[in-house]
Amino acid sequence: MLSNESDLIRESQEGGNEAFGELYDEYIQKIYKFVYFKTHHKEVAEDLTSKAFIKAFEKIKSYDSRKASFSTWLYGIARNTVIDYYRTKKLNINVEDVWDLPAKNGLLEDVDNRMKLEEVGKHLKTLDVGQREIIIMRVWDDLSYKEIAQIMNKSEANCRMMYMRAVGKLKENVPFAVYVALLLNNLKN
Amino acid sequence: MNDDRLKNILEDIYRLDPNLKEYEEVLSDIVGKILTAKPDIEADARFVAKLRDELMNKKIKNKLNIFSMNKIPFIAVGATAAVAVVIVVSVSLVSGRLPVNKLTGLITQKTTSDSVIQLSANAFGSLGIPSDSGSQRSALAEEGALTADAAIAPSVGFGGGGAPANSGSMMKIGEDMAISPIYYQPYQFKYTGGDFVIASGEMPVYRLALNETIGRTMARLLSGASAEFVDLSKFKNAGVRSMHISQENGFNIYMNLDQGRISLDSSRPYLMTDTVMRCDGPDCGGYEPEEYPQLPETQLISIADRFLSEYGISKTVYGQPFAEVDSMGDRFGFYYAPRLQTVVYPLSFDSKDVYESGGQASGMRVLIDAVDSEVRSVNEILNPIFEKSNYEMETDFNRIIKIVENGGMWGGYYGAMEAGETLEVGAPEYVYLHQYDYSQSDGIVRELYVPALKFPILNAEGKNIYQDSVVVPLAKEMLDNYEIQNDVPMPEPYFMKGEEGSGEVMPMDAMVESSPSAQ
């Protein structure tokens, strides 16, 4: 968080474009990555990130620091933008992020990361969408429980519980052979 | 992969559930894989710079600029007062026997659950023809002072205040003076945004879930009690459609149970003044316009939020609030701060705000008195339960553009001083359009919220229009019905008359040739 963030927010709300520019500089990479983790496609992520920042710019005057931190507010806008994106697709299932997509969905994904993501996707797809979001926000985005709670509009305690259950479920879904191999490896050492 | 990061994550997990430490190997493997699989990406520098430029060049909407300037309002004339939705069946008829607090409990019990009821596709039946919500008007037509060019202006399509065609009314300045009529031309529209792909063939249309249960239950309650002069129990199958509750030195509460909405306004007397005598003596100019301070937007929203919270008024179906100002007054520099200043909570579905056809946000409005910062009224508090049903949407963007370049669904905007003056509209955003749907089968008017595109008017500055955007619905059926209605040519009036007593008829032009003046 910028040391003078509240001043920049106030200036932005008073019409200071340059102040908003500084906020943009601080958050653009974080928001882009957040969106990318949910879409796995560069152009789509750029488009949705643009929409999120434009919306934030247009709505900056209604931001209330008593309700949430600025970063949480921004993440919330980005998250909703991604959800809207998937809802405009003609799919027969409820999709909130790329992990919900069935195979051969016709939507774009970057090739570069596909191999890595396929491996971890086997684990993440066993989780429900809320659990998966929390895992990704904790492990990839490194967000605090408080931030996650505000973004997802849940309580902090609820988020901790969901995270714990998600981890428990990941552990249960490890193939038995892998589990035994790991245990044997541990015994050898 | 950063080992420290993995270690921190695992320690965090064990703090939540120490039992998971038994599975350290497994968790270390899985979490390690998740960390390794994290896409190593950065936003492209060119993209970052381009978006930054776009944002730096954006102008914050006109409706909010007033709060960044120290304008001294020079005229304050009464602003819009609260409008009661319905006033019917005063409870006072039977108040002696009715437990009013029980009634209140019943209403809140039914109306505080927020939900959306998913129905099958096309469940609302025909969406009909898009209705003009009455929000579009020519620039000054509502004052009745000036009118549009009669030869071009259709009478249909104007909201309240449109002058009839061919009126060419005179503008009165004083009692005896008049000046020649001024005829405004329609603005032309030109789309200047880029390509836009309408992604989906189907989107949800929303509608308030009109629940008769409250009305019927209340009627049963009422029928159990009767006034001394009428036995309500004799009226079978009755429903309570509306109620008015009045609080001494508090608020009048108007409940339209048919339409699922509540409005309230202050029952405390307060004097709305628009002029004041500031001086005395022979040199005094007499009464001068009253001046009111323009309260900062953050303050207005804070007052409104506090009020809604105090009275338990749900905001869950509304988007981010904003303070509403007279955009045209602001553009032309004659903005004055009214005494009653409005905070709008726009109705919102799927993170998209709802608009009227003329671009105004549709939703709950809180009116605040600038004199004492008290809330005077709240309009359009909706029972936050909706039904939604998917309908087919138009995906041909060009079809939408044709409508936009015609000035929208309800005719053009009249206010241009010269023919050919053009309004540029930019790239759209998805919104919802508030529509009235009148059902011929049961005569009930229902309100629909239809997916739409909102096109901003980019060069509204200095232009003679109230609207700042054009909103066009995407529902295919509505566009089809609109085109059918507007493509049918109106038959030319063809007056026929024959010689008296002859039973013969002659066409009109023959009559002209035979008339004395033509000879």
TrEMBL record, chain A:
It comes from Candidatus Magasanikbacteria bacterium RIFOXYA1_FULL_40_8. Residues 23-90 form the RNA polymerase sigma-70 region domain. InterPro entries: RNA_pol_sigma-70-like, RNA_pol_sigma-70_dom, RNA_pol_sigma70_r2, RNA_pol_sigma70_r4_t2, RNA_pol_sigma_r2, RNA_pol_sigma_r3/r4-like, WH-like_DNA-bd_sf. This is RNA polymerase subunit sigma-24. GO terms for biological process: DNA-templated transcription initiation. Signal peptide: none annotated. CDD domains: Sigma70_r4. SUPFAM superfamilies: Sigma2 domain of RNA polymerase sigma factors, Sigma3 and sigma4 domains of RNA polymerase sigma factors. The keyword Metal-binding does not apply. The keyword Isomerase does not apply. Pfam families: Sigma70_r2, Sigma70_r4_2. It comes from the Bacteria. Keywords: DNA-binding, Sigma factor, Transcription, Transcription regulation. PANTHER family: RNA POLYMERASE ECF-TYPE SIGMA FACTO, RNA POLYMERASE SIGMA FACTOR HI_1459-RELATED.
Automatic annotation (TrEMBL), chain B:
The chain crosses the membrane at residues 72-94. It comes from the Bacteria. Keywords: Membrane, Transmembrane, Transmembrane helix. This is Uncharacterized protein.
